[in-house]
Amino acid sequence: MEKMKRSLGRPPQDSKKKPTKTTIVENAIQLFLQNGYQLVSMDDVAKKCGVTKATVYYYYPTKADLFTDAMVQMMLRISDRMAQILSKDTSLKANLNEMVKVHLKATFEIDLKTFTKEAKVSLSDEQLQQMNKAEEMMYNVIEKAMATAIENGEIPKGNPKFYTQLFIAILSIGNYKDTDQKSIFSTIDEMAEQIMEFFWNGIMGKR
């Protein structure tokens, strides 16, 4: 009877566990971030999830589909986390500083430029658009916090979108590695402090 209720070809679900699709996405995110797009196969994802490759293909017909959804879901979670940090009842500077530290700790061992570049050539325009929309949602969270800070007089009047993109641009420096894979500063805390001071002094200098 249970088999009859289940859609044809749909993998069985255990109500006590995470949905299979969620498990696949979460493990795919880890694998893609650790190894890059090209080196991860659908078989790798299946093995890490403890499911068959056919199960992975049931939810995601191609690796590009899986990668797109994995990255979109990751960015949506990042957006939620950023919103939590930026909504704290403390100063914008303190909240941004915490966000910088969280970002740097999460991406410390990831070559983001290479990671995104090698994947984008394998994605369709529609898939790239999905990722761009999710990325824009992250920016919107920061932009909203900037706009609120402007209204409250915490930072000088200006274009919140410009402030946001300036912040993102400076933040990306935190992921810089030289040819020996060394960062500019020896610790994440020091890097976060320098990024925040540079950004904050830049916008506050408008007063």
Task: Describe this entry's structure for a reader.
The chain has 207 residues and is mostly helical. The protein has two domains: 1-61, Homeodomain-like (Arc Repressor Mutant, subunit A, Orthogonal Bundle); 63-207, Orthogonal Bundle (Tetracycline Repressor, domain 2). It has ten helices and no strands. The protein has helices at residues 2-5, 20-35, 42-49, 53-59, 63-86, 92-107, 112-120, 125-151, 160-172, 188-204. Helix 2 (20-35) crosses helix 3 (42-49) and helix 6 packs antiparallel against helix 10. The longest helix has 27 residues, at 125-151. It is globular, with a radius of gyration of 20 Å.
Key features of this structure:
207 residues; mainly alpha; Arc Repressor Mutant, subunit A; Tetracycline Repressor, domain 2; 10 helices; 68% helix; globular; disordered N terminus
Chain-wise SSE layout:
Elements: H1 2-5, H2 20-35, H3 42-49, H4 53-59, H5 63-86, H6 92-107, H7 112-120, H8 125-151, H9 160-172, H10 188-204
Helix pairs in contact: 2-3, 2-5, 3-4, 5-8, 6-10, 8-9, 9-10
Compact description:
The protein contains 10 helices and no strands. The protein is mostly helical. It has 2 domains: 1-61, Homeodomain-like (Arc Repressor Mutant, subunit A, Orthogonal Bundle); 63-207, Tetracycline Repressor, domain 2 (Orthogonal Bundle).
CATH architecture of the largest domain: Orthogonal Bundle
Outline, from the CA principal axes? globular
Share in helix:
55-70%
The largest sheet, given as strand count, sense and whether it forms a barrel, is: none
**Any idea what the radius of gyration is?**
20 Å
What distance lies between the first and last C-alpha atoms, to the nearest angstrom? 71 Å
Low-confidence runs of at least 5 consecutive residues = 1-5
Q: Give the DSSP E fraction (strand runs of 2 or more residues).
A: under 5%
CATH class of the largest domain: Mainly Alpha
Report the CATH topology name of the largest domain.
Tetracycline Repressor, domain 2
> CATH superfamily membership of the largest domain, which one?
Tetracycline Repressor, domain 2
Helix/sheet category: mainly alpha
Give the oligomeric state of the chains in this entry, treating copies of one chain as homo and distinct chains as hetero: single chain
Number of domains: 2
Number of distinct beta strands: 0
